[in-house]
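User: Hi! I'm working on a homework problem where we have to compare a predicted structure to a textbook description. Could you give me the structure for the chain below?
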Amino acid sequence: MAFEGLTEKLQNTFKKLRGKGKLSEKDVKEGMREVKLALLEADVNFLVVKDFIKKVTDRAVGSEVMDSLTPGQQLIKIVREQLIELMGTVPSKIVFSPSGVTIIMLVGLQGAGKTTAAAKIAKYLEKHHGKHPLLVACDVYRPAAIKQLHVVGEKAGIPVFSMGDKAKPSDIAKAGVSEAKKTGRDVVILDTAGRLHVDDALMLELEEMKAQAKPDQVLLVVDAMTGQDAVNVAESFNRRIGIDGVILTKLDGDTRGGAAISVKAVTGKPIKFAGTGEKVEDIELFYPDRMASRILGMGDVLTLIEKAQESFDQKKAAELTRKIKSQQFTLEDFLEQLNQVRNMGPIDKIMDMIPGMKTGKMGPVEVDDRELARVEAIISSMTPEERRDPSILNGSRRRRIAAGSGTTIQQVNRLLKQYEQTRKLMKQLAEMGKGPRKGKPGFPFI
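Assistant: Happy to help. Predicted structure tokens:
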């Protein structure tokens, strides 16, 4: 996750404070000094950090923390509340035009991921709001930009309107809106050109397009991996074009995450979406409270539940929970779970959402197509008895299974180890009462 380094530093700081029965003003200030350094290292804007630390310290040295029975926990609560306030308090959703077509104009620098973001947002609006989007190719400069939009549009199952690379972008935008009205599409997403850096030519073109297409919302796409530069870019675009919100891409990458914390405070504009991967489904509405919990290492159970509800069959979930609790979780169940978990995204992201979990807790489980093909081949080479009771798999049986599945004994052993780790983990979590409960939706893999 983007905030891994920051999360670890904050957790270490709070661990020291939680170990104290009472907190003195000196303890709080020393802790806040460490929090300040952690935020600056995460590339959070200096002025934002300064204001944040002051607000937390002012609250922390009052009776709210000092007189508390659990001062360390109370301090974490204050830090979380201030982080939420910093990032926008509540999620900022897309506002649809009450009548006619909603026009969304995407702007940003080259390489920020505008074209992919356009397809992702279109897919999100279709899936979650029942909309019928149209993607419009207004980038006539970047080689293959129009082709790329057609490719990602096809992957997302969203139609694309283009007029080649000779027409004016503002004319393409107007024609795209007309096409949407003619074909019954109710959302138009304009994929505009970018530059390597902010320049007058780009801004003038975008100003003209905004004046002619009259978008309902202008959303800036920024690359979270650029850190503080992303915030500076947001300031520049907001000053010249006027933006209504920000889409952070590559938030799953090797980034320090400072842009997510800084951008709302610096520009006054909310983060609306966060890109979390390369697939067209890998985009999330940005929830400040959930992001604050992730940053502090508290997990993100609500997003996890939403992903699970989208990916899992509820009847199968209830049956699986019964099997886990009665220790009847078989290798066939394991394979089915790997297939369904794959639909939710990379396993390390899922683990990051579980409170107290860290990536790698389940061992080297890789949920990709090649690994799944191997797992399926190995399990298919077992007898029904072996699948139900892997404890009978001695050396000769394992050699037979490896030969039958075209794999090695080491790969068979690794699969069995992963299965056993998963079985134990799922049983522990089920016993903790985190499985499906009466009146609650199924939550199969825990």
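For your comparison, note the following. Residues 302-431 form a domain with the 434 Repressor (Amino-terminal Domain) fold (CATH 1.10.260.30). Residues 359-367, 434-446 have pLDDT under 50 and may be disordered. Good luck with the assignment!
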